Amino acid sequence: MVPMLKFYFHDGVRTAAAESLPFLLECAKIKGPQYLAEMWQYMCPELLKAIETEPESEVLSEHMYAMAKCIEVLGMGCLSNEQINELIRILDKSLKEHFERAVKRQEQRKDEDYDEVVEEQLLDEDDEDVYVLSKVADITHALFAAYGQLFFPYFDIILPHITKLLGSNRPWPDHQWGLCIFDDVIEYGGPACDKYTDHFLQAMLAFLSDKQGEVRQAAAYGCGVLGQFAGPAFAQVCAQAIPRLVQVIQDADSRNEVNLNPTENAIAAVTKILKYNASAVNVDEVIPLWLSWLPVWEDTDEAPHVYGYLCDLIDNNHPLVLGPNNANLPRLMVIFSEAFKREAVEKDAEVTKRMLNIVRQLQANPEMFQACISQLSQDQQVALHHYLTT
Q1: Of 58, 91, 96, which is closest to residue 104 (Cα–Cα)?
Q2: CB-based burial of residue 51 (10 Å sphere; 0-12 exposed, 13-18 middle, 19+ buried)?
Q3: DSSP summary character for residue 282
Q4: How far apart are CA 295 and CA 316, in angstroms?
Q5: In contact, 190 and 226? CB cutoff 8 Å
Q6: Is residue 81 part of a domain?
């Protein structure tokens, strides 16, 4: 497969060769770490060379994605210092070209030959550029996941480009992917992300109200990981983020299909702040509001955080969640059952077991349980029964 990375007679062959590499590494794990390391030592230089020399942007994107997946498979230590520097050099070049091509397209729009046909071609080129940019983000994500703070010195080399992506004059896909990269800085850098605060914080808070859903989603996710991973130094920032997140969630169109993912990411962000970094927040003031936003179901990566926190509050007999004389129990049963109906949580997930344990505790009081069941739709009852019995 590796020699096929430079099979220039057919783009599809080069793409398929790159796509196969992370799967080959996964399969090779069974033969032990030495065999795996030798296989990667053969692959890596050729894949780096292919990324640097690939002339077609669509194929280049797949090469970059393959590199990201290979790093994810292998983890820390898979790249030598020289190889990381080489990869960063390639990313630096790719980002420079991203900005240069954007300028060139704007100049072409001023040309006397500019017309609808040219604009269509320019939009296609823009889409290709954005796709390559998303693969740059995939590679930095894989490197942060593997190396954490140890990746910071290398990241600093491309930091000016990533900061530039967040500029107010940049198009929204630049904002989206710039935020995604800084989200990883926070998630995998932890409290040490503080060194980059001036580069991302104000933009992240401002982009919570962006008109583009993908940008709002990336900004909301960033606020959530600030709450979860950035530590007490960011307590005031998290408190400042909550009113902005509430505004996103309570917008009149927040539950429209196109806005559902950004909205649920905002709900998850509030959840993480309440759970992990609430020292500057009046939690009891926010919880009734937070409870009114449930259930969530669209983003199955974020839903476990939301339902896990709800289980925490129920297990701790929080009065604002249970209500006077447990009056909120039927409503809580509706939330759980709708989550099951929508398959918001996987059946074998730890949070699902916690939710079902709470339901089974309710079953111990047949009268109360029946009162709760009577509030469910037929579909919700079927889903609840299915989760309880399988």
Answers
A1: 96
A2: buried
A3: -
A4: 20
A5: no
A6: no
CA 75 to chain centre: 19
Q: Which of 98, 115, 99 is nearest to 57 (CA)?
A: 98
Look up residue 73 and give its two tokens: 């498979």
The whole domain housing 348 covers: 294-390
Question: Taking Cα atoms as reference points, which of 275, 223, 225 lies closest to residue 248?
Answer: 223
Phi/psi class of residue 251: alpha, beta or left (left: φ > 0; alpha: ψ in -120 to 50)?
Answer: beta
Task: List, as own/partner pairs, every contact residues 48-53 make where C-beta atoms lie below 8 angstroms and the sequence separation is at least 24, other chains included.
Answer: 48/83, 48/86, 48/87, 48/90, 49/5, 49/6, 50/5, 50/6, 50/14, 50/18, 51/90, 52/90, 52/93, 53/6
Q: Is residue 189 part of a domain?
A: no
Per the domain annotation, does 353 fall within a domain? yes
Closest CA to 193 of 148, 250, 145: 148
Nearest Cα to Cα of residue 208 among 244, 234, 166: 244
pLDDT surpassing 70 at residue 356:
yes
**Computed from CA positions of residues 193, 196, 201, 204, in that sequence, does the dihedral angle turn out positive or negative?**
negative
User: Count of residues for the chain?
Assistant: 390
Q: Is position 236 within any domain?
A: no
Is residue 304 predicted with pLDDT exceeding 90? yes
Place of tokens 């962006």: 210
Q: What is the pLDDT of residues 36-52, one digit of tens each?
A: 999 999 899 999 999 99
**Model pTM?**
0.93
In one letter, which amino acid is 99? F
* Alpha carbons 239 and 13: distance in angstroms, whole number: 51
pLDDT tens digit string along 126-164?
Answer: 999 999 999 999 999 999 999 999 999 999 999 999 999
The two structure tokens encoding residue 34: 């030495």
Range 179-184, long-range pairs (CB < 8 A, 24+ positions): 179/203, 179/204, 179/207, 179/215, 179/218, 179/219, 179/221, 179/222, 180/137, 180/141, 180/218, 181/136, 181/137, 181/140, 181/141, 182/222, 183/218, 183/221, 183/222, 183/225, 184/140, 184/141, 184/144, 184/145
Q: Band the pLDDT of 298: cuts 50, 70, 90.
A: very high
Please say if the pLDDT value at position 318 is more than 80: yes
DSSP state of 232: G
Provide the 10 A C-beta neighbour count for residue 110.
7
What token pair was written down for 188? 């995998």
In the chain, the number of structural domains is: 1
